[in-house]
Amino acid sequence: MKKTVLTIFVLVFVGIISGSAMAQPFTHSVWTNNNGLAIRDALTGCNYNSLTGGFSGFNMATSWTEPTPGTPADAHFRGVGKAVGFSFACLTRTYDFRLVASTATLPDSITGTWNIFRNGVLVCAACNGVAYNLSVPAGVGNYYKVYIDDPGAGPQTWLYSGYLDVRKDF
Amino acid sequence: MKKTVLTIFVLVLVGMFSTSAMAQLKTHSVWTNDNGLVIVDASNNCEYTTLSSFDMATSWTQPTPGYPAQAHFRGVSKAEGLTHFCNNHFYEFSLNNSVGTDGDTIKGYWDVYRDGILMCNSCPGNAYGLGAGVGNYYKLIINDPFSTTDWAYIGYIDQRKDF
Question: Which among A19, A23, A127, B141 is most buried, taking Cβ atoms within 10 Å?
Answer without folding.
Answer: A127
